[in-house]
């Protein structure tokens, strides 16, 4: 299972993600359950996003309930983690010349024209 998780969240992605991830909330009363591992939660989110399964269909091998994964996804979304991560990835890969912008061009072949236009 560990190799599978490493495929979903490789070390380089995890390092970038840690730069934008908000600190875990403090529980003033203490106690409670131990917080689920953030990297496993991220892997579960990537799994849902890439397979198209629903939150409820999440396999138990991720070590957290689907509710926990969804809650963390919602918390991170509110904190704009995904937008920040996207920006960092663009900056990092772009600065290293690893982005091929030529594939992003739009031409008349990829734009659908309406029938009977003026």
TrEMBL record:
Ranges where the Insertion element IS402-like domain occurs: 10-85
Pfam assignment, any one: DUF4096
Transmembrane segments: none
Stored PANTHER family: BLL5188 PROTEIN (PTHR46637:SF1), TIS1421-TRANSPOSASE PROTEIN A (PTHR46637)
Official protein name in the record: Transposase
Organism: Nonomuraea dietziae
